[in-house]
Specification:
Blueprint (H helix, E strand, L loop, with lengths): L4 H38 L2 E16 L5 E12 L6 E8 L2 E6 L9
Antiparallel strand pairs: 1-2, 2-3, 3-4
Keywords: Membrane, Transmembrane, Transmembrane helix
InterPro entries: DUF3301
Pfam families: DUF3301
């Protein structure tokens, strides 16, 4: 059985797409873990236990190599009542930043 060049390219393209998809799922899991750690450190609660892809682009890392830059949006709360939006930024599989606003000061 012989394969044409077009069939080989199609199979390789599909394989590359599958690898990219699985890597994207891994980066998303790393983003959720980073937000959960930041929540423990900064005393906020990650709502819905998930992040949502907000922006996607290419950017260079500190070594000058091209990586996929992703910005995820998530919902969080300091008091369990008010919902706020935050962002987590990933460059490749590395965490760049978790962005949340400061909690409102409590007046007694």
């Amino acid at each position: 059985m012989y394969f044409t060049l077009g069939e080989i390219v199609a199979v390789l393209g599909f394989g590359a797409l599958c690898v990219w998809f699985l890597a994207s799922i891994r980066v998303r899991e790393l983003a959720v873990q980073a937000v959960a750690r930041a929540g423990e450190r900064d005393d906020f609660q990650l709502l819905d236990q998930t992040v949502h892809l907000n922006r996607l682009s290419l950017s260079r890392d500190e070594r000058g190599r091209w990586r996929v830059w992703r910005q995820y949006r998530f919902d969080y709360s300091f008091d369990g009542v008010q919902r706020h939006q935050g962002f987590v930024i990933m460059l490749g599989q590395r965490l760049q930043a978790v962005v949340v606003r400061e909690p409102d000061p409590t007046l007694h």
